[in-house]
Amino acid sequence: MAAARLSQFGVQHVAKGIGRLTTEVIESGSGSYVSMVGGKRYLDFTVGIGVANLGHCHPKVTKAIQSQVGTLVHGQVNIAFQKPYLELIERLLPMMPHPSLDTFFFWNSGSEAVEAAVKLARHATKKQNIIVNFGPLVPGIFSVPFPYCAQCSIAQHAGGKFNYENCCMDPVTQLELLLKRETAPSDTAAIVIEPVLGEGGYVPAPKGYFDRVREICDKNNILLICDEVQSGFGRTGKMFAVEHYGVRPDILIMAKGIANGMPLSGIVSRKELMDKQPPGTMGGTYGGNAVACAAGVAVADAFKEEKILENVNARSKELRGMLEDLRKDPKVGSMIHDVRGLGLMLAVEFKPSPKGSIGSKVQAKCKEKGMLILTTSIYDTLRFIPALNISKEDMAYGCQILKEAIEEVAAGEDPQETQTKGQALE
């Protein structure tokens, strides 16, 4: 089919509930670029929403997948051990943020891994309730706010006194009150936290927050579950974002970048907890698929051999530096509310505009110029998720496109209106 016909076919027959950036059809990907049917090529700052962490069709990962397909496609985890599954555990053990995290269960997707973590927590503690920083909620699930200083009413009325480096820690107070008012510690199995909010706006936890939560968990016999579906596997400049905070999770959730595009996720905890589940408690038809695990082994090897974390931190300085420079630019800075993130999990949040979403306009401009970027689901925020092995040259190209797009959108805005509208929320 021609490009237009393929696109129309997709619109007609693919579920409408799936949101997407474009109705174009991706034909191939290589490194930091994707090519569409019809020939259009884009610099990809989305990499499958952080799934293709090492870029599209990484040669070593591709080779490992091809080799495994000819050996064993699927060795069902409830039947027997299979070699790639065990090899992946062997590679991951030294990467864990704490030596106590030594026992693994692999599944297919991030949501399933969260389900597995909740299931383990309830088995291990014999308690039902779970505290989260997100919704929607089901019975036995309670929500508390995440420390989001850029949108915190306390910070906004304190004249700059509170920020990510000096958080007011009101969310900790709210957590303590929740444990007194709604879900007693004796009923609470675990607290689930993303070290860096993903869909919530790419917001890193402020300094000291995790220490306080860890203290509350230890005091009340509650498990701390770190959801690193999006922030794990080098995305923040360390293998796992919780390493930035020096706190031990009881259960770690992982997915996305673990196998560079193959459907694989997992949880890891200490053997003492995992062994509380009797045989038959966990399983799943496709969990820990052999081909996906082989890809995960290749990903782990590439991190070490190709010095991926060093590249993440070098490219992060370049991207963040450009964003901070724009924030200081009098022609552009009036639109920008916040620049934040860790490693190559960065975001820029724009102030409200009477002319509509600034972020969506910048996103559209970037696409026109040949780069794909994404927004987040709250406030007017653009997130940047390039491949972790993106070259210096491609990062410079991406920064150039982004800078031009923001400047062009700013030229169509009224700085006074945008600034006034933004101040009304501050």
Automatic annotation (TrEMBL):
Belongs to the class-III pyridoxal-phosphate-dependent aminotransferase family. Its cofactor is pyridoxal 5'-phosphate. InterPro entries: Aminotrans_3, Aminotrans_3_PPA_site, Class-III_PLP-dep_AT, PyrdxlP-dep_Trfase, PyrdxlP-dep_Trfase_major, PyrdxlP-dep_Trfase_small. The keyword Transferase applies. Pfam families: Aminotran_3. SUPFAM superfamilies: PLP-dependent transferases. It comes from the Eukaryota. One of its GO terms (molecular function) is identical protein binding. The keyword Zinc does not apply. Keywords: Aminotransferase, Pyridoxal phosphate, Transferase. It comes from Lithohypha guttulata. This is Uncharacterized protein.
